[in-house]
Write a structure and sequence with these properties.
By secondary structure, the protein is an alpha/beta fold. The chain has eight helices and seven strands. Helix content is 46%, strand content 14%. It has a seven-stranded parallel sheet, sandwiched between helices. It binds nicotinamide-adenine-dinucleotide (NAD).
Length: 256
């Protein structure tokens, strides 16, 4: 028996990276999974991987920053699987690296639109649904940039601090309704996003491993599978007394 056996799990941004690893982990721990992403190619591939492992999953395309997409997504989950028990709000973008004084309004708006506004829209729709069905558990992807500042990525840092704030409010307001809401704050994780940040920082001279590993006390970056472990555990009944937390999973980064 898996730790989320019989539950329905929704993962946004599940067409790649941490989202894909999380969707697969939900499945191996017994959940029926709704894979959602703005990118249908990646999302459909995640579903294929879950089916190949013998799991149950469907793909629903959605841009998490569009209210109409988010509404249709939650309706689609309930139509297919009848309930929404577990959610990982994972979709996010990194934006462009620049010193604060050179950041553009366009980059600020683009990053906040997906990472903060999209998070608000998804959380609100998920809570509305969970209120009708007796509760559930939600994990939001923040970042260590939601706990501390990072030169060069001010919009991303602002958006991830917003994720941690939204998480606390949702947890406080709906704990008594049986809804737990937590966020996790990963350090450098081996995905396309980290490669993009390393590429922008070093003009392609250094890999994300070379740049980021020495900055972490464990001496390496993390894997999407390590992050998925924490997310699925937080959504399971084993984490029944955990809510409103912003939990680092960062190889010791923010302890420095
Ligand atoms: P990734 O770029 O590999 O995957 C992100 C996925 O989100 C992609 O499949 C993309 O298509 C999807 N997406 C982007 N915009 C979307 C939108 N508007 N609607 C729906 N889907 C959308 O990135 P990742 O590294 O797997 O990141 C996942 C989450 O983890 C993000 O929120 C990111 O900020 C966070 N995070 C990543 C790291 C890291 O080092 N990789 C560290 C801390 C936090």
């Amino acid at each position: 028996m898996g730790i989320v056996s019989g539950k329905t799990a929704l993962v946004t941004g599940a067409g790649a990276g941490i989202g894909r690893a999380t969707a697969r982990k939900f499945s191996t721990e017994g959940a029926k999974v709704v894979v959602s992403d703005i990118d249908s190619t990646g999302g459909i591939e995640t579903v294929r991987l879950i089916h190949a492992d013998g799991g149950k999953a469907i793909f629903i395309q959605a841009d998490c920053s569009k209210p109409e997409d988010v509404k249709a997504l939650i309706e689609g989950v309930v139509e297919e699987y009848e309930s929404l028990d577990c959610v990982c709000n994972n979709a996010g973008i990194e934006g462009k690296i620049a010193p604060f004084a050179e950041q553009t309004i366009e980059n600020y708006d683009a990053v906040m639109n997906v990472n903060a506004r999209g998070m608000f829209l998804c959380l609100r729709a998920e809570i509305r649904e969970m209120l009708t069905s007796g509760g559930g558990a939600i994990v939001n992807l923040a970042s260590i940039a939601g706990l501390i500042g990072f030169p060069g990525i001010a919009p991303y840092t602002a958006s991830k601090h917003a994720v941690n704030g939204l998480t606390k409010n949702a947890a406080l307001e709906y704990g008594k309704d049986g809804i737990r809401v937590n966020s996790i704050c990963p350090g450098g994780i081996d995905t396309r996003m980290l490669d993009s940040l390393a590429e922008q920082t070093s003009d392609g001279q250094q890999s994300s491993q070379q740049m980021m590993a020495p900055l972490h006390p464990l001496g390496r970056i993390g894997t999407p599978e390590e992050v998925a472990e924490l997310i699925v555990w937080l959504c399971s009944d084993r984490a029944a007394f955990v809510t409103g937390a912003n939990i680092p999973i960062d190889g010791g980064y923010v302890a420095q």
